[in-house]
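All the exercises in this workshop are built on plain-text protein records. A record pairs a protein's sequence with a compact description of its fold. Read left to right, the backbone structure tokens trace the chain's path through space. Once this layout is familiar, the rest of the handout is easier to follow. Here is such a record, shown just as it appears in the course material:
>
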Amino acid sequence: MNDVADGSGVCTIIIAGELFRPRAALMLMTAQRRIAIVCVALGLGAGLHAGEIQLSEAEARVVAKREVLVRATLDANHRRGTVRAAVLIDAPPAVVYRAMTRCADAFEFVPHLKACRVRDSAPDASWGIVEHEIDFGWYTPRIRWAFRAEFVPEKSITFRQVSGDFKKNEGAWEFEAGADGQNTLVKYQAAIDPPAFIPNWLARTTYKRELPQMLEDLRQLCEVRYKESTPAR
């Protein structure tokens, strides 16, 4: 992992040895089903559509080696910016999607999550309003926020804050099935402007440690679930 600063004061955090260049637009999509999304403290600008989280050849090689890929481009204070991430999970998209759309499962891999509640949802389950509470401990108040999530089953999840402590929090997840349908490339893209009461060092830790650990924990949860459901395999 390295930090790179350019003349503008923007700092790029590189995990897995790759450089993430800033992008002007990030994403918004549509989707379905119950909810609990992994929305650690991350968010996004407007304008992207499904299928726009792309990996370079170098990034794809990193992910193929089962490394967690994270690239965060932050401002000079290391708190506000954009992030991309990817992880390969040896389980079908249906298994991953289910884990990421259930509050009960969210507690297994979302760091510091203390509450997850579905406040409202569409009759056809195409969207939902979810509330999260995140507790980092004694040194900061709990983060409380509600987001609207839209679903394309086993394909994508899009979220954006509708109320709460973040100044801005929007993002998207995509699930790409492998050739045999037995594994899933999970891709994430977002941008964040965290609550004013979050210190810079804690915001930075979210990118450098919390997000990679969350993706690793998500992978472990999904792979164990899949193996348990298919013992003959």
Remarks:
- Residues 2-15+29-229 form a domain with the Alpha-D-Glucose-1,6-Bisphosphate; Chain A, domain 4 fold (CATH 3.30.530.20).
- Residues 163 and 220 are 31 Å apart (CA to CA).
- The chain has one domain: 2-15+29-229.
- The first helix runs from residue 57 to 64.
